[in-house]
Design brief:
It is a single chain. By secondary structure, this protein is α/β, with parallel strands linked by helices. It has a single domain, classed as 3-Layer(aba) Sandwich (Glutaredoxin). The chain contains six helices and nine strands; from the N terminus they run ββαβααβαβαββββα. The strands form three sheets. A five-stranded mixed beta sheet has the order 5-4-3-8-9.
Amino acid sequence: MGPCEGAVPARHLVRHDEGMSISVGDTAPEFSLPDQDKQVVSLSELRGAPVLVVFYPFAFSGTCTGELCQLRDELATYTDAGVRVVAISTDPTFSLKAFRDAQGLPFPLLSDFWPHGATAQAYGVFNDRAGMALRGTFLVDAQGQVAFAEVNSPGDARAQSGWKDAVAKLPAPA
């Protein structure tokens, strides 16, 4: 796949949200959510390998599409380090399937649709007024501890360099 419309230019600055409830060193909240094919994915089932958990507001929106396409295009940075990637929004599974197919996204898109935003709330990245997830990114280590945490406001595109730096600090895969 080629570059996507809405790709995030490298010059964007990331704003960290000082009010987030999940911090580095915390145990990552457990979740079990359906993916785009209605198959349940649980954080506990991924334990033993690091997991990059990427919350995004909406499938098919410009900034979200750009971010997830960049993640797709640079996925080897994560998978070569043994990191599993999941992306979570409050969209229903049907929308996620169409989005994944349209963009060729090779990682699971998880639906936090019902109870609406419960997982985003557990991670401290749910916008109650808009009913959507904020742009939250969490690297969970193989033992289930948060190794990296970042939250951006809606409309603030994420620079993925911080994610890559955090992955580089993980112990090498066995």
